[in-house]
Amino acid sequence: MMQIHPAGRLQLAVLASGRGSNFDAIYSATQDGRLDAEIKVLISDKPQALALQKARQRKIPAYFVDPGAFVDRSAYEKELVERLHQHQVEVVALAGYMRLVGEVMLKEYPRRIVNIHPALLPAFTGLHAQRQALEYGVKYSGCTVHLVDDGMDTGPIIMQKVVPVYDDDNEESLTARILEQEHQIYWQSLQLMAEGKLHIEGHRILVR
Ligand code: GRF
Protein backbone atom coordinates (compact mmCIF):
# COMPACT_ATOMS: atom_id res chain seq x y z
CA MET A 1 0.00 0.00 0.00
CA MET A 2 1.48 3.32 -1.06
CA GLN A 3 0.72 6.77 0.28
CA ILE A 4 -0.33 9.17 -2.47
CA HIS A 5 0.85 12.38 -0.82
CA PRO A 6 2.55 12.92 2.54
CA ALA A 7 0.69 14.96 5.15
CA GLY A 8 1.20 18.64 4.43
CA ARG A 9 -0.16 21.59 2.50
CA LEU A 10 -0.93 20.84 -1.13
CA GLN A 11 0.88 22.93 -3.69
CA LEU A 12 -1.90 22.90 -6.21
CA ALA A 13 -2.49 23.83 -9.84
CA VAL A 14 -5.97 23.99 -11.32
CA LEU A 15 -6.50 23.28 -15.02
CA ALA A 16 -9.85 24.47 -16.35
CA SER A 17 -11.47 25.03 -19.73
CA GLY A 18 -14.68 26.77 -18.73
CA ARG A 19 -16.67 28.60 -16.12
CA GLY A 20 -14.67 27.29 -13.18
CA SER A 21 -17.31 26.61 -10.56
CA ASN A 22 -15.22 23.72 -9.22
CA PHE A 23 -12.25 26.08 -9.11
CA ASP A 24 -14.45 28.46 -7.07
CA ALA A 25 -15.36 25.70 -4.65
CA ILE A 26 -11.76 24.59 -4.19
CA TYR A 27 -10.59 28.17 -3.82
CA SER A 28 -13.13 29.01 -1.11
CA ALA A 29 -12.19 25.87 0.77
CA THR A 30 -8.55 27.04 0.81
CA GLN A 31 -9.64 30.50 1.99
CA ASP A 32 -11.69 29.44 5.00
CA GLY A 33 -9.42 26.68 6.21
CA ARG A 34 -11.39 23.59 5.13
CA LEU A 35 -8.67 22.68 2.66
CA ASP A 36 -4.97 22.89 3.46
CA ALA A 37 -3.81 23.83 -0.02
CA GLU A 38 -2.42 26.76 -1.91
CA ILE A 39 -3.51 27.29 -5.50
CA LYS A 40 -0.21 28.29 -7.09
CA VAL A 41 -1.41 28.66 -10.67
CA LEU A 42 -4.40 28.25 -12.95
CA ILE A 43 -3.92 27.17 -16.55
CA SER A 44 -6.53 27.07 -19.27
CA ASP A 45 -6.57 25.78 -22.85
CA LYS A 46 -9.33 28.27 -23.70
CA PRO A 47 -8.60 32.00 -23.86
CA GLN A 48 -12.19 32.91 -22.94
CA ALA A 49 -12.47 30.61 -19.94
CA LEU A 50 -14.20 32.36 -17.07
CA ALA A 51 -11.86 30.47 -14.76
CA LEU A 52 -8.95 32.60 -16.06
CA GLN A 53 -10.73 35.83 -15.13
CA LYS A 54 -11.64 34.48 -11.72
CA ALA A 55 -8.04 33.49 -11.03
CA ARG A 56 -6.77 36.93 -12.03
CA GLN A 57 -9.30 38.62 -9.74
CA ARG A 58 -7.95 36.46 -6.94
CA LYS A 59 -4.36 37.35 -7.82
CA ILE A 60 -3.56 33.76 -8.69
CA PRO A 61 -1.11 33.49 -11.63
CA ALA A 62 -3.25 32.51 -14.62
CA TYR A 63 -2.16 31.46 -18.09
CA PHE A 64 -3.85 30.59 -21.32
CA VAL A 65 -1.69 28.01 -23.07
CA ASP A 66 -2.87 27.41 -26.63
CA PRO A 67 -2.67 23.71 -27.55
CA GLY A 68 -2.93 24.74 -31.22
CA ALA A 69 0.41 26.50 -30.98
CA PHE A 70 2.32 23.24 -30.47
CA VAL A 71 3.15 20.46 -32.91
CA ASP A 72 1.58 17.75 -30.76
CA ARG A 73 0.23 16.94 -27.33
CA SER A 74 3.66 16.14 -25.92
CA ALA A 75 5.03 19.53 -26.90
CA TYR A 76 1.98 21.25 -25.41
CA GLU A 77 2.30 19.27 -22.19
CA LYS A 78 6.02 20.03 -21.91
CA GLU A 79 5.04 23.68 -21.82
CA LEU A 80 2.44 22.96 -19.14
CA VAL A 81 4.97 21.04 -17.06
CA GLU A 82 7.44 23.89 -17.32
CA ARG A 83 4.88 26.33 -15.95
CA LEU A 84 3.84 23.92 -13.22
CA HIS A 85 7.49 23.60 -12.19
CA GLN A 86 7.92 27.38 -12.23
CA HIS A 87 5.16 27.57 -9.65
CA GLN A 88 6.39 24.61 -7.56
CA VAL A 89 3.23 22.63 -8.19
CA GLU A 90 2.97 19.18 -6.65
CA VAL A 91 -0.64 18.24 -7.34
CA VAL A 92 -2.78 19.06 -10.37
CA ALA A 93 -6.57 19.34 -10.11
CA LEU A 94 -8.48 19.13 -13.38
CA ALA A 95 -11.67 21.12 -13.01
CA GLY A 96 -13.67 21.05 -16.20
CA TYR A 97 -10.50 20.62 -18.24
CA MET A 98 -11.76 19.24 -21.51
CA ARG A 99 -8.71 17.34 -22.74
CA LEU A 100 -7.15 13.98 -22.22
CA VAL A 101 -3.95 14.07 -20.25
CA GLY A 102 -0.99 12.54 -22.08
CA GLU A 103 2.15 10.74 -21.11
CA VAL A 104 4.30 13.82 -20.51
CA MET A 105 2.03 15.09 -17.72
CA LEU A 106 1.39 11.62 -16.33
CA LYS A 107 5.07 10.86 -16.11
CA GLU A 108 5.81 14.13 -14.37
CA TYR A 109 2.88 13.87 -11.94
CA PRO A 110 2.21 10.17 -11.42
CA ARG A 111 -0.84 9.67 -9.13
CA ARG A 112 -0.76 13.44 -8.56
CA ILE A 113 -3.36 14.48 -11.13
CA VAL A 114 -6.95 14.50 -9.92
CA ASN A 115 -10.16 14.86 -11.93
CA ILE A 116 -13.85 15.27 -11.25
CA HIS A 117 -16.43 13.58 -13.42
CA PRO A 118 -20.20 14.20 -13.31
CA ALA A 119 -21.29 10.54 -13.12
CA LEU A 120 -20.73 7.48 -10.97
CA LEU A 121 -17.74 5.95 -12.71
CA PRO A 122 -17.19 3.57 -14.38
CA ALA A 123 -20.62 4.44 -15.84
CA PHE A 124 -21.00 7.23 -18.40
CA THR A 125 -17.45 8.25 -19.17
CA GLY A 126 -16.52 11.04 -21.54
CA LEU A 127 -18.66 13.96 -22.64
CA HIS A 128 -22.27 14.70 -21.62
CA ALA A 129 -22.27 12.24 -18.74
CA GLN A 130 -25.48 13.67 -17.30
CA ARG A 131 -27.29 13.31 -20.65
CA GLN A 132 -26.00 9.73 -20.96
CA ALA A 133 -27.34 8.93 -17.48
CA LEU A 134 -30.77 10.41 -18.26
CA GLU A 135 -31.05 8.63 -21.58
CA TYR A 136 -30.04 5.34 -20.03
CA GLY A 137 -32.69 5.75 -17.37
CA VAL A 138 -30.63 5.19 -14.23
CA LYS A 139 -32.44 6.10 -11.01
CA TYR A 140 -29.28 7.35 -9.35
CA SER A 141 -26.26 9.14 -10.70
CA GLY A 142 -23.69 11.37 -9.07
CA CYS A 143 -20.10 12.43 -9.30
CA THR A 144 -16.65 10.95 -8.89
CA VAL A 145 -13.27 12.34 -7.90
CA HIS A 146 -10.49 10.12 -9.21
CA LEU A 147 -6.81 10.00 -10.01
CA VAL A 148 -6.01 10.43 -13.66
CA ASP A 149 -4.38 7.57 -15.53
CA ASP A 150 -3.86 6.96 -19.24
CA GLY A 151 -7.49 6.04 -19.93
CA MET A 152 -10.54 8.25 -20.22
CA ASP A 153 -12.11 8.57 -16.75
CA THR A 154 -10.65 5.21 -15.70
CA GLY A 155 -8.31 6.10 -12.83
CA PRO A 156 -8.58 4.99 -9.18
CA ILE A 157 -11.58 6.47 -7.36
CA ILE A 158 -11.06 8.72 -4.35
CA MET A 159 -14.65 9.72 -3.55
CA GLN A 160 -18.16 9.48 -5.01
CA LYS A 161 -21.47 11.04 -4.15
CA VAL A 162 -24.85 9.71 -5.23
CA VAL A 163 -27.82 11.83 -6.27
CA PRO A 164 -31.31 10.64 -7.29
CA VAL A 165 -32.56 10.99 -10.84
CA TYR A 166 -36.25 11.98 -10.99
CA ASP A 167 -38.76 11.28 -13.76
CA ASP A 168 -39.18 14.96 -14.50
CA ASP A 169 -35.45 15.73 -14.61
CA ASN A 170 -33.88 17.22 -17.69
CA GLU A 171 -30.18 17.57 -18.42
CA GLU A 172 -30.10 20.96 -16.73
CA SER A 173 -31.79 19.95 -13.50
CA LEU A 174 -29.72 16.80 -13.12
CA THR A 175 -26.53 18.69 -13.93
CA ALA A 176 -27.32 21.24 -11.21
CA ARG A 177 -28.05 18.53 -8.61
CA ILE A 178 -24.78 16.78 -9.40
CA LEU A 179 -22.75 20.01 -9.51
CA GLU A 180 -23.79 20.88 -5.96
CA GLN A 181 -22.20 17.61 -4.80
CA GLU A 182 -19.11 18.09 -7.01
CA HIS A 183 -18.45 21.27 -5.07
CA GLN A 184 -18.32 19.26 -1.86
CA ILE A 185 -16.40 16.14 -2.80
CA TYR A 186 -13.62 17.88 -4.69
CA TRP A 187 -12.20 19.82 -1.77
CA GLN A 188 -12.93 16.93 0.60
CA SER A 189 -10.90 14.56 -1.59
CA LEU A 190 -8.03 17.02 -1.81
CA GLN A 191 -8.10 17.50 1.94
CA LEU A 192 -7.74 13.74 2.46
CA MET A 193 -4.69 13.95 0.25
CA ALA A 194 -3.32 16.91 2.27
CA GLU A 195 -3.82 14.91 5.46
CA GLY A 196 -1.72 12.10 4.01
CA LYS A 197 -4.66 9.72 4.32
CA LEU A 198 -4.92 8.45 0.76
CA HIS A 199 -3.21 5.16 -0.02
CA ILE A 200 -3.29 3.11 -3.16
CA GLU A 201 -3.38 -0.64 -3.54
CA GLY A 202 -3.80 -1.84 -7.10
CA HIS A 203 -6.73 0.15 -8.47
CA ARG A 204 -8.21 0.83 -5.01
CA ILE A 205 -7.72 3.95 -2.97
CA LEU A 206 -7.99 3.40 0.75
CA VAL A 207 -8.40 6.10 3.39
CA ARG A 208 -6.19 5.42 6.40
C1 GRF B 1 -18.16 19.74 -14.18
O1 GRF B 1 -19.43 19.16 -14.34
C2 GRF B 1 -17.11 18.67 -14.08
O2 GRF B 1 -17.58 17.51 -13.45
C3 GRF B 1 -16.83 18.37 -15.52
O3 GRF B 1 -16.88 19.61 -16.16
C4 GRF B 1 -17.73 20.50 -15.43
C5 GRF B 1 -16.92 21.71 -15.11
O4 GRF B 1 -17.67 22.72 -14.51
N1 GRF B 1 -15.55 17.68 -15.64
P1 GRF B 1 -16.95 23.99 -13.89
O5 GRF B 1 -16.10 24.62 -14.99
O6 GRF B 1 -16.10 23.52 -12.74
O7 GRF B 1 -18.05 24.88 -13.45
Key traits:
single chain, Rossmann fold, seven-stranded mixed β-sheet, binds 5-O-phosphono-beta-D-ribofuranosylamine, about 210 residues, three-stranded antiparallel β-sheet, about 25% strand, alpha/beta, about 35% helix
Please, could you describe this protein's structure?
The protein is globular. The protein is of the alpha/beta class and 208 residues long. A hairpin with a 2-residue loop joins strand 9 and strand 10 (204-207). The model has no long low-confidence stretch (mean pLDDT 98). It has one domain (9-198): Rossmann fold (3-Layer(aba) Sandwich). It has helices spanning 21-31, 50-57, 73-86, 103-108, 129-136, 171-194; strands spanning 2-3, 10-15, 37-44, 62-64, 91-94, 113-117, 140-147, 157-164, 198-201, 204-207. It has six helices and ten strands. Strands 4-3-2-5-6-7-8 form a seven-stranded mixed sheet. Strands 1-9-10 form a three-stranded antiparallel sheet, with no helix packed on it. The termini are close together. The protein is 34% helix and 25% strand. The site of 5-O-phosphono-beta-D-ribofuranosylamine (GRF) has 13 residues, from helix 1, strand 6 and helix 6.
